[in-house]
Amino acid sequence: MKRILLIAVCTTATALGAAAAKPPHKNAAHAEHERSGGADFNVSIILGDREREVVRNHYTANCPPGLAKKRNGCLPPGLAKKRYAVGQRMPDDADIVILPNEVILRLPPLPRGYGYRVVDGDLVVVALASLIIADAIGIF
Predict the structure, then answer these.
(1) Longest dimension (CA), the chain
(2) What CATH number does the domain containing 96 carry?
(3) How many domains does one find in the chain?
(4) In this predicted model, what pLDDT tens digit does every residue of 64-122 receive, in sequence order?
(5) Share of residues in the chain with pLDDT > 70 (%)
(6) Which region among 9-23, 24-38, 118-132 has the lowest average model confidence (pLDDT)?
(7) In whole angstroms, what is the distance from residue 94 CA to residue 83 CA?
């Protein structure tokens, strides 16, 4: 009787372990996507002169003359430095500005999961979930 009970407990434990395991992926591309952390770095996002001009026009309208001539995005001299790189995660202490809807509507639409931000006087396309920078262009 003890032997039957022991076999039943072992069989149940084995079955529960298999049921709790992650199922294998049906295609290799999805499995590779999960191993890479979920960010799709094959997305082609290119910022150009048109995007730069749209954002520059919005931000230079309210910039004081003393900072406007510095061409650094209306940032005081101590804050005007690059602290990020394309392909890297956005620094936690970065001053991230979300663009107003009126500006976003004049820019080309981005793939799902990406957004426009202004960081250190640059227009940046960032993966929203991971905050990894996909592309950046100087506004000023």
Answers:
(1) 91
(2) 3.10.450.160
(3) 1
(4) 777 766 666 666 666 656 667 889 998 888 888 888 899 899 999 999 999 999 887 78
(5) 53
(6) 24-38
(7) 8
Residue 19 lies in a domain: no
Whats the size of the chain, residue-wise? 140
Tell me, what's the pLDDT at 33?
46
Report how far apart, in Å, the C-alpha atoms of 97 and of each of 11, 19, 51, 109, 139 are.
57, 45, 16, 18, 13
Q: Residue 100: inside a domain, yes or no? A: yes
Beta strands in 17-60 (DSSP E): none
- Note down the domain range covering 67: 40-138
> Is 25 inside a domain boundary?
no
Joined together, the tokens standing for residue 120 give 């250190």
Residue type (1 letter), 132: I
Give dist(CA 124, CA 138) in Å, integer.
9
